[in-house]
Amino acid sequence: MKIVTVNVPESYIGAINKLIGENGLYPSRSELIRCAVRD
Length: 39
Hints:
Protein name: Ribbon-helix-helix protein CopG domain-containing protein
Helix content: 40-55%
Domain Ribbon-helix-helix protein CopG: 2-39
InterPro entries: Arc_rbn_hlx_hlx, CopG, Ribbon_hlx_hlx
Order of helices and strands: HH
Distance between the termini: 17 Å
Structural class: mainly alpha
């Protein structure tokens, strides 16, 4: 797998952290981004 850098607006970080932490839908930010790109 190739490494790619993604810049995300600050306004998205809170929502991303909720999907990772509170809801536990994704184990990490990296996995969330991978799934988003696949879809």
